[in-house]
Amino acid sequence: MNPANITIAVLDRTPDDLAALTSHLEDAGYRVLPASTQAHIERFVASQAVNLVVKGFDAAKVDPLPFMDRIRAASPDTECLLCGHGGTIHEAVRAIQRGAVDYLPKPVEPALLMEAVKKALERQALVASDPQLRRSLRRQSEPNIFVGASPAMQAVAETVEQVASAMVPVLISGESGTGKELVARALHEKSTRHDGPFVALNCAGLTDTLIESEFFGHVRGAFTGAIYDRPGAFETAAHGTLFLDEIGDLSLKGQGDLLRVLEDGVYRPVGSIRPKRADVRIVAASHHDLEKLVRAGRFREDLFYRLNVVELHLPPLRERVGDIPALVDAFNRHFAARHGRRQKKPTPAFLDALAAHSWPGNVRELRNLMERLVVTVRETNLEARHAPARPTTEPSPHAADALFTVTRGMSLAEIEARTIQATLDQVTSNRAEAAQRLGLSRRALQYKLRLLAR
């Protein structure tokens, strides 16, 4: 295996340790992506194929396992190597049981580092050489949302079976939290491209200055800060599936760039004169009504028809209440196995309480609820008190902020500040969703929040 084809992301907040780890790996010929924050590593993993993540940390200050879990959830094929200062044998055993390829003491000896990297790549190659094993591991990474007998979801499942092997684009619509990415992954796993990568790209977070680089990559020296060649989503998803999430939030410039590559079948990395062939299956998703956006002039009609060859609409959970017991069972089994806990026993009162809930967060809300209950509830039975609180006619703690009166003399800045705060309260401070509701990019929202904090 050519080391130059291996991408290793390295995280360490200590500059000297980061430099040492990076140097050792680069000397061995690997392509290294150094970072000093977890957010940088998570962006690397989300935007390109990363074989291995090496995390250096101080065991007295940091528990690396939640970070490792997020990496493995975002990219099940990525291996993780932990390098801890001051860690105990118990912590090392726990990390390896949770999926780390190894746990090395800091400062890391180069020979041990190379041996651990080799072991990680061998394990990755073993999984890659067995498609059945890899598909099994991928299926275990997320629970099944196709359970239940609701006609709407049965129709979705049947359509997935029918079109998965065809290379036609698929557009998935539905409210936030209905499971659009899980359906996209199901399309990929059932397709003839299941041995290739599945790459998800959130279009809502792309600014005009980043779109071309994120889509098509760039070459070294293409712009200030481009210190190495970086593949874009079309390259990392080659021979696989490219999932374009929240396509309705893509700017008009980005829509034009995407349409061009879909029509021509080729693209050029930023700063390169050599075109590359786009060999991906496109699956797009949006919680917006794209036809309305087309009529409003906010989404290109020609791109809409390019993407909407087959449409799958996911119903909100409130319209498939009868599926809740089956979903609870699926989530219960999945998270008990993932976290090494005993399965819970839902009582009829608990299920009745779930059926009465409005589920604004849809399947994602139920998924998160069951994971939390599996991990935190000590009793065996799940009772009505474990269900989300019933809605009341009394104002919620945030109702006064969600609805406010604009009074004479109130400044535009104050109105904007209260609108932003009310929106954050409504979506439980989810910055990405708040930015979408406000019609801002996430970066613009972060800028405004910094101004408000002064």
What are its keywords?
Rossmann fold, 5-stranded parallel β-sheet, 4 domains, Helicase, Ruva Protein, domain 3, 20 helices, alpha/beta, 454 residues, 47% helix, globular
Provide the fold topology.
Layout: E1 7-11, H1 15-27, E2 31-35, H2 38-47, E3 52-58, H3 65-74, E4 79-85, H4 89-97, E5 102-105, H5 110-129, H6 131-141, H7 151-163, E6 170-173, H8 180-189, E7 198-202, H9 208-216, E8 217-218, E9 230-231, H10 233-236, E10 240-245, H11 252-264, E11 266-267, E12 276-277, E13 280-286, H12 290-295, H13 301-307, E14 310-313, H14 324-339, E15 345-346, H15 348-356, H16 362-376, E16 381-382, H17 399-402, H18 412-426, H19 431-438, H20 442-453
Parallel strand pairs: 1-2, 1-3, 3-4, 4-5, 6-13, 6-14, 7-10, 10-13, 15-16
Antiparallel strand pairs: 8-9, 11-12
CATH architecture term of the largest domain: 3-Layer(aba) Sandwich
Helix content: 40-55%
Give the terminus-to-terminus CA distance.
52 Å
Q: What is the level 1 CATH name of the largest domain?
A: Alpha Beta
SS-based class: alpha/beta
The biggest sheet amounts to: 5 strands, parallel
Number of helices: 20
What is the CATH superfamily classification of the largest domain? P-loop containing nucleotide triphosphate hydrolases
Radius of gyration: 23 Å
The backbone outline, from C-alpha atoms, is globular
Number of domains: 4
What CATH calls the topology of the largest domain is Rossmann fold
Side by side, the strands of the main sheet go 2-1-3-4-5
The unreliable regions are 392-402
Annotation, overall tally of beta strands: 16
